[in-house]
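Just wondering, can you check both lines?
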Amino acid sequence: MSNIQWPELIIFTALFLLVTVLGFLASRWKAAASLDHLDEWGLGGRKFGSWVTWFLIGGDLYTAYTFVAVPALIFGAGAMGFFALPYTIITYPLVLLPALRMWSVSRSRGYVTPADFVRGRFGSPVLALLIALTGIVATMPYIALQLVGLESVLRTMGLNGSGIVGHLPLLVAFVILAVYTYQSGLRAPALIAFVKDILIYVVIIAAIIYLPSKLGGWAHIFDTAKAKFDATPAKTDGIYLNSNNQLQYITLALGSALALFLYPHSLTGVLASRGRSVIKRNMVALPAYSLLLGLLGLLGYFAISAGAKPINNAATGKPDTNTIVPVLFDGQFPAWFAGIAFAAIGIGALVPAAIMSIAAANLWTRNIYKEFIKKDATHAQEAKQAKLASLIVKFGAVAFILFIDPQFSIDLQLIGGVLILQTLPAVAISLYTRWLHRWGLVAGWAVGLGWGLIILYGIGNPATGKQHFAGSALPLGNLSIFGWHPFSGSQVQIYVGFVALVANLLVAVIFTVIARKMKVFNGTDSTNPEDYHADEGDKDLRAVGAH
């Protein structure tokens, strides 16, 4: 107990208790007569306005793991870590029109998940099931990573340990999260997101103003970082990109941008908004978070200049680079301000974890439970099933931390990104055309997902001793197509998800051409062309009808 940073822990606990109270009070905020309806519990009644949606989506996409992992990646690899900046900038104009279309058809048809849309578009419960399972599997390690971010803060404050006893503070935090999410649904993270984002902005702006002057100025910070990377044997690190990692940077940024709004939790924030005009305003305003992300990334260079050292993981005995940002704040700021920063990161774990668990629960309820187990489920039974599923998802994520090396959870998230990208043809492209055949989409999904996993399995990391699933950067020289190595000897790297998506699309197109030649039935489309063209303002509701 002597290592516990009491001032930081007290401030952290006080702010955590504040958001806990807000989480329980959220059940009465903008509430309908009852939350026993999936639209009310899982989508907040589909009536969030511009400000609430902005904080909700921002709190959903910019997670605790973002706050600790992006600076940690820049701390370890330099410029490559800044891929997160262009990808978040690319995302919003890229998804604007698909998000509007998805909102319109979902409001009209009462869809709650992307798999609901696929089910209605192609009349295929099998394809919808595959999309739902992919979403759930890809989301689970993402939730676990929020625990990694929260635990990095707890470890820095001296709450360091292994096993169930050592993880007790983490378990308590997630039990509280599970209870108020069960009660309040999506309203809880939507309300808490206000506190989380205000804290994050205050902390980062203070850090950017204060730390450079304390660490000797910007020139010294970048010179120190350059000297560190120049001294390493790696050919893919440095404060500048080079010929080996430029393609990886581009494809990772583009692939991540395409994948971001395919995650079920991202679409949950979109579907919870009350109109198309709200979505438009948010896609214009959300890049403000990208500015914040760029400033966050610079903390990795600050940590190098400050000589920060990651804390060893008690379970593995190895340095945990995810603790770099908490260690930086702990060493460079007064204890009271470090406590606020830790609370910002900790609360930043709760908001996305809640939204992700709700999104996964919606997928289970609508596309597995109601589709295959209880077709005549009432609205109240759906809501009850979703609440229970959200608890299971949260505690499943806790199991990742308790029983699996947290570093493996991080690698699983890389896999999750590759997986969710394989739903792009069925979810995003099908918003614009039904030309792709449903069995072509199934075949493309299977090939893209399978090949992506095979490639990821073969990627090792000699530095950590891992032989499989150790990253998402594939040297082109290792790319094999039925034993053919088209780029033999090349050290240029590319994002695995991008390679798998190309294979997915090629197979989907080939199978579609064959199916159409053979005149194979492509299912019944229950959507309406008018669902995709709702007008602005109040016309939204008149055009698509009440849910």
About this structure: The beta strands are 311-312, 319-320, 473-475, 493-495. The longest strand covers residues 473-475. Confidence is low (pLDDT under 50) at residues 535-547.
